[in-house]
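Job type: complex structure
Entries:
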Amino acid sequence: MTATQLANHDVRLQISGVALQRGFRRLVADFDLTCEPGDIIALQGPNGSGKTTLLRAIAGFHTPAAGRITLSRLQGPAIEEPGEILSFLGHQDPIKAGEKLIDQLRFWADLCGARRDRVAETLARVGLSKQADLQGGVLSAGQRKRAALARLLLENRAIWLLDEPASPLDQEGRALLGALLDQHARQGGIILAAVHDPLPGVSARILTLGTAESAVAA
Amino acid sequence: MSLVRACLAILSREVRLGWGAGGGALLSASFFAGSVMVAPFALGPAPDTLGQIGPGYLWLALTLASLVSLERLFQADLEDGTLDQMLLSPVPHSLQVLSKILGQWLATAVPLLAVSPIAALLVRVEPEVILPLCGQLAVGSLGLFLIGAIGAALGASVRRGGLLVALVVLPLYAPSVIFGASAAAALASGGDFFSQPFLFLCALVLAALAFAPVAAAAAVRLHVD
């Protein structure tokens, strides 16, 4: 797979004045961020500082208490659904215990409209060729994360939202993650990752959350 | 075309997971068969009594059996993050939910319907009425699964939410059961297959086909936040 085969991404993510709230607790207040093609952002902060909630808000799962999150293409039609241009890798891995790995990836390929013949090649890319015929239930945590990365590659969307992507990966897996991140950024993709350790292999802009902590009156 | 491909993928995966290890596709069918099997013990084996109660009893068994499979319809996907990913797919969410319900129906209700002729024999339904009656049960079961999905979606994030789902769903089941059982009674007393109650049941199923996926999709969306 060469870079010329893939369309270069050109989208922009703008977050302005966003406040995030869980229950009565305000996690993030007045948060601004603009991401241009090729940006890699590492979100840091203590547990409970709102990293995951911010990622989920960008993905459209969580509605911010205030502010706007705008996704736009530099050229071309307006974006109606975040799913058109955005992939989300959460800390849960959507792997079914009773289904073969290759079938699960074929399912994701069908769902996002990717070519089915790319599945085997993508599995090889993340080092899971030998595990293709194993049931999801027997995969280790690191292998599940690699499978989730394979899904990201199949979806081939511009913005990657990653929640602790490196945590269960071994040394080799981290190197692989670094290579994938680097390639994605070079193709004009945007990466936002919630991390505790620095992202492997790439230099990222670091944003620290967790300074806005305060209780909000009901 | 990619829309059709995605919907077929969801549907076939639902069937595959239902029949795979721990999928529980046979749970409803066994519940149905079991509850019909004990009917002669509970109600007495007298052919006259059973023959009168039989068609209605099959509807009762179908209603309760369809509740059994509802709890897990969305819960597993919510827990492992599959639902997040499905929300990010380009396919409209209500279509995804519809495909999921149809897949669940194929995996769960088809075995149930396959055993229903034998179940009908056990409760002394007249032999010539059995196949039309099972046809009506098939139509009705689709309606029950569609309506039940709304409750399943509302209770998706509740642990052991089966009770909640049953409480939400049973009142919604009432019209289908009333028309289904009247249609069955009409059949048993020598009426047409397309009797008035059955046409009403068909109308209910069609309405559920249109509304239930939208309602269930909206309800599922609430749990993702």
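Summary: The beta strands of chain A are 11-22, 25-35, 40-44, 66-73, 86-89, 159-163, 190-194, 205-208, 214-215. The helical segments of chain A are 51-59, 101-112, 118-125, 141-155, 171-186.
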